[in-house]
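Late entry, evening session. Most of the bench is empty. Finally got around to the prediction I had been postponing all week. Sequence below, unchanged from the version circulated by S.P.
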Amino acid sequence: MEKKEKKNENQLFNGLTQKEKEEAIEKIIDFSCPKKSFFLMTTISSILCTIGIMSNNASVIIGAMLVAPLLSPILAIALGVSLADYRLIFRSIKVVSKASLYAVGFSFLAAFLLNKPSELNHEMLLRSFVSLEMVIVALLAGTAASLSIIKKDLQQYLAGTAIAVALIPPLSMSAVALRMLEIQIFYNAAMIFLFNLAGIILSSLMVFSLSKFYTSQKKVTEELKEEEKILKDNTVNQ
């Protein structure tokens, strides 16, 4: 029995049991559930990130990335594509879109209330140009993020991948660029976010497909039904 478990742990993609796949699906859907708390954490993260960018403080930006919950619904999009589950795909796209609007909106509000910088600082410049390296980082970060959430022996690295994917900073930077009337930088920051988004989805899709998550369609259906019930109960209790 022990030898079998060790063998499974050593297999990167084929070592997952059905139970482990279902646990991963439960985490991904639960962490990306569009509850008020999800959007609250997105708001807090975006405001923190804006403060970090405008004050040229990398530590605050890193803290904001750790707080941001945006990675989970993006992984849910990749999971939905790997399962050809259109309900999960559209639900997750809606969550990502709404969270992104929250991030840009509250980042702009924070940038408007703070003193307008006279010039671009170091942290702003880092998020003002699109490069091939960023695409490679997004692909690698997406792979690490999906592996970290599906494999128990890698879950201690999940916080690190939240920093590597860098989803909130380009959204906040786009809002800061609007505040400074820097339209080209706004465009570049938005493109960085989209490249990160695409890279994470593509690499996570590869991981979910190779790990044969398509055998767990039933679990996705159950989790989405449970989510609907939770959201409905929360609406009734308001």
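Two things to note before I forget:
The CA atoms of residues 66 and 160 lie 8 Å apart.
The longest helix spans residues 86-113.
Will write this up properly tomorrow.
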